[in-house]
Amino acid sequence: MKTKKKNALKVAILSITITTIIILLCTSLFSNIFSLVIEREYFIPKESSIFTFQETIHNDGSSDVWRYGEDCNNYYYNLSTFHNDVLFFPKKKTKSCPGFNPKNITTWCGVKIPETIFNTAPYLKSNK
Question: For residue 47, which of 70, 73, 89, 123 sits 20 to 30 Å off, Cα-Cα?
Fold first, then answer.
C-alpha cells in the first residue's frame, strides 16, 4: 500500500515538473520574468499579460526595452514615455486595414500617433 502511494506521489511530482517546464519553454513567461528582473525600464503593457506578451522588435538603444510587441489579442508599440505609454492595435481589425504591417505603426488604421518628447521618426522609417 505504501509503495502505491509513493509511486502516485512520484508521478504527481513528475507531472507537475514537466508541466512547469513546458509552460516556461513554450510561453513568454520565462523571457518576460528575466527581462523584468534584469532591465529596470522593461515593462509589460497593462492590456497584456506576463504569460502572453512577446517582444517582436527590440529597441536599438542602450536599454533592453522592446519597441514592438504582441500577444494573442493585440499588437503593441512602445512610445518610450516616462509613464510607459503604449499604442495597441487589435489583431481582429487587421483584415479591415489595407496595407497593415504589425511592425510599422503608420500602417495601423485609425491609430493616432501622439507627439512625445522622444523622436519616433527613425523607428517609423526603418520598419517600412
Answer: 123
